[in-house]
Amino acid sequence: MILEKTGFPSDQEKSRIYETAKSQLMQASYQTIGLDHFVRKEDELFQALQHGILHRNFQRYCTRRTTGQVYAFGVTGISQLGTAYIQNSKDIDDYIQQIESGSFAIAKGYTLSPEEQIIREVILTLMCNYKVNWEEIGDRFSLPAETIKQAIRYNEQQLLTLAEDQIITLDEKELRVNPEGALFVRNVAASLDPFIQQTTRSFSKPI
Question: 157, exposed or middle or buried, with CB in 10 Å at 0-12, 13-18, 19+?
């Protein structure tokens, strides 16, 4: 089924709406974090961004101190762990029966490979903090920076194209998204995701 496009704003209109909202929020002393979130300077999320340690789970931006992992309770709830994702039963009767019997009401789960854990960490770090320091990522996994690059199929030529467009600044130790390139952070992240590189799937355009 193709959704009716009539009535949807154009890309130019969406950009204007976003810039208008951003301007009004900035005038009210809010600061941008991530793609489209705004917080005040005293908020711990903004402080985390300033120190390059902003984090995100599949629900929201957070800090590792407050939400390193997500433990879900209730029907269909999804837990996000360091090495896996787990979904609870979608059927209420089945969920109650398993809980009352002393079991975990798990319907399905997915265990991340060591490589997938690295890819997730690189992309989350970039999307949250607009930069990736390869040695810092390596320290989190007790691995050399070169191993981190190998896991994401590091493609310097592709990244240099983004650098030529002034979307990113790149050197041997770090990749940083320039302020004027912030709206294209999804595109930068896609260039670091080997699973996207291996498919023909399209991903969201920047507004």
Answer: exposed
Is 8 buried (19+), middle (13-18) or exposed (0-12) by CB count in 10 A?
exposed
Q: Compute the distance between CA of residue 85 and CA of residue 153 in angstroms, rounded to an integer.
A: 24
Alpha-carbon gap, residue 36 to 185, rounded angstroms: 12
Q: Give the C-alpha separation, 191 to 158, whole Å.
A: 7
For 89-132, write each residue's pLDDT tens digit. Answer: 999 999 999 999 999 999 999 999 999 999 999 999 999 999 99
- Answer whether 0.85 is exceeded by the pTM: no
Question: Whose CA is closest to 136, among 127, 128, 148, 124?
Answer: 148
If you average pLDDT over each of 2-11, 62-71, 114-123, 182-191, which comes out highest? 114-123
